[in-house]
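Quick question, first post here. What does this chain look like in 3D?
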Amino acid sequence: MLAWSVWALGASLYLAGFFQRVAPAVMTQELMADFGIAAVGLGQLSALYFYSYVAIQVPTGLAVDRYGPRRVLAVGALIAMLGALTFAMAPTFGIAALGRLAIGGAVGVAFVATLKLAAHWFAPRRFALASGLTLACGVIGAVGAGAPLRAAISAFGWRPAMIASAATIAFVFVAIILVVRDDPAERGYRSYFSGGLPNSARGSVWQGLGEVLAYRNTWLILAAPQGIAGAAIAFGGLWGVPYIVAVYGTTRETAALACSMLMVAWAAGGPLFGALSDRVGRRKPLYLAGATASLVLWSVVVFVPRLPLEALVGLLLACGLCAGAMVIGFAFGKESVPARLAGTATGVINMGAMIGPMVMQPAIGWMLDRHWNGAVVAGVRVYDANAYRAGFALLLVWLAISVLMLAFARETHAQQAP
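> Answer (accepted):
Ran it through. Tokens below.
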């Protein structure tokens, strides 16, 4: 029970981070109106989260290997709370951008630190499952940032809703300080980790990074999740709601619910793929199958016009489920390097998962503005189906690259590299 409590607090910060990650999707009109921005500006505001998130991944992996995940999680939660308040109360686009930048860098420590805790508190055979459950917790946060957040914004406004989210992160910060410990040995229990306690690390932190990047699998598994996560987050986390409203003529609440279904399926897919991978003792086949299915399913979403809304929701559910395959990459990457480099490897792989949405969100916004037909409603640009099709075509290119990278990855057979 203690092990799961420790894991749950790390996963709670990841949940809060995922909530912040996709929250702009249900407040696109409010943000565009309040800050006087078009699609490319909105894409940049949302993507600022990913810029700092990606930048912090390698330092986070190095930090948790050297100093332990508890300290890293606590500092991250504190800064995330301050960043959420800054964004919620921002009077200008520049201050809002600063808040988003702070949030991304702060919550960017959560996934790596939580998996480092899992490596210490759980048996190795449960690592892929723990990875999947952590991803599921994050995606549950994204579900909360869908229809429920949209309802709260309609009732109270986007700023009070985001202030409430900052208060939640403050609670997580206090709980981490009180409960989380780096290793079971600190509570008098047996540790499952074979690489030594965190602050036993010696030598240059950059030496560890160099060692991780010297493995060919690291580069391939770094590239693989970019298209998968890029498609799911760029659509579900920003552009899906306005797309469904514009093309399918629904309300924003209905569109938010449809995108929430994508996230629900993603939350279910992570543990499912993680558990299956652990059971069969192989990583590559399931990961490759999920990536290939994602490419096919998103191609239907993008290129088949005016699907029945029920069919669209079904496709989004399938896309989300297949996106769960990316969780295998964290076990895949960890096993491709020695155990003492697990935190650094996880940080590198997680950085790859966020490069896709970091690039795709503003890139899609740029394509939308290039194909804008001049329509404006209530002072905000409105984009048609052709504009969205051009933007979403970028997702398919990146998914094809993900499939190609996985095809060349070396199987680890669920065994840790010596």
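The domain at 2-180+205-407 is CATH 1.20.1250.20 (Growth Hormone; Chain: A;).
Confidence is low (pLDDT under 50) at residues 197-203.
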